[in-house]
Design a protein that fits this description.
alpha+beta, 4-stranded mixed β-sheet, about 10% strand, homodimer, globular, 10 helices
């Protein structure tokens, strides 16, 4: 099934009309697709195309990413992740686990928004405070791991979910922002290593397409 | 005894959508109201996964995050579209509602006086996607997605009702949204809930602004 992903060369193009455009809202879905052995097409949108063109007006909320699953068009990065979660059985083993996957993903989203605000609106002035407060925001995920198979499995249950890919991406971005930020969290540290060792994901993370793609649209990380 | 408990501040805030859903679905639930003092002084905050409310109990099952709670109730009561495709569209809608809810919250809690004029001026651009969605679904005569109500309808309705208080007439340019709000509010159980003292006496937001 052909899948196309419209994304900027920076994963998501920050629109100048938004106050805090989200950085890298596509790498999680890319990791998911790669790890699930799927291929997809990238339709890269340059800043000029975005600002000048009809694409933005054609997007439901005037934003990217836009995702095509055959003839089915989706917007909103978390809706796309959930759709892929349903498609590939990455949404917990039952309704109870599905709810927990949502609890995790919404927490990841909250921290992603804080990260975006820092990166796009207050990097120099806000970074120190952000890094200082970061342990409090990472701790819930350590707690969740500690409550699930002693942290040796996934963020929820025994099988990988879309929330794992989203959390992993968030953690990888934070390791760039604040190297060592996972040191106080042994389960999260091991979790990141373990997920990154999954063969298809490892290959994707080592690929030029991933390594050459900046995390954020303004060059800050 | 109802299996559902909502643990939250004495406001509509991020819980009125789930309250409307439960009421409209003929469910009863318990409210555990948390005062500001209890929250600031007590062990409850530290016990909450992300240090925030709402907290929701479904029997012995505890959930956090208002949208996770809505999705759980969506699955429980069949309010998540008729198939996977509709489920994805319900998510697209709910995430858009959430985005606007965040902007609303930022206005209310951090910049009401200074920001309201600009916010109201920009509001049509943020409401238009929902009018568009209605226009693409049964000519706007059904729900936001498909033929059956979903958790996204309750969330969108709550958002629109709050905006009608903030900016009366904001739906006038949007005939489908206007009719949609009227139609949903006329649903008997929802109508009764919206007229109830428990709803009408509950402030929309925690700082008295609306």
């Amino acid at each position: 099934m052909p899948r196309g992903l419209w994304a900027s060369p920076h994963s998501v193009l920050p629109s100048p009309t938004r106050s805090s455009p989200p950085p890298g809202r596509c790498e999680a879905m890319r990791m998911l697709l790669a790890d699930q052995g799927q291929s997809w097409k990238e339709e890269v949108v340059t800043k000029d195309t975005w600002l000048q063109g009809p694409l933005k007006a054609s997007c439901l909320y005037g934003q990217l990413p836009k995702f095509q699953d055959g003839d089915f068009t989706l917007y909103q990065s978390n809706a796309i992740l959930r759709h892929l979660g349903r498609t590939f059985g990455l949404y917990g083993k039952d309704q109870r686990e599905a709810a927990l996957v949502d609890v995790v993903n919404d927490g990841v989203e909250d921290l992603r928004c804080k990260y975006a605000t820092l990166i796009y609106t207050n990097y120099e002035g806000g970074k120190q405070d952000y890094v200082k407060a970061l342990p409090d925001h990472l701790k819930p995920f350590e707690t969740l791991l500690s409550q699930n198979r002693g942290g040796q499995a996934f963020i929820v249950g025994d099988q990988i979910s879309f929330a794992d890919y989203n959390l992993l991406d968030l953690l990888l971005n934070h390791q760039v922002l604040a190297p060592g930020c996972l040191d106080p969290f042994p389960l999260l540290s091991a979790y990141v290593e373990r997920l990154c060792a999954r063969p298809k994901l490892k290959a994707f993370l080592a690929s030029p397409e991933h390594t050459n793609r900046p995390i954020n649209g303004n060059g800050k990380q």
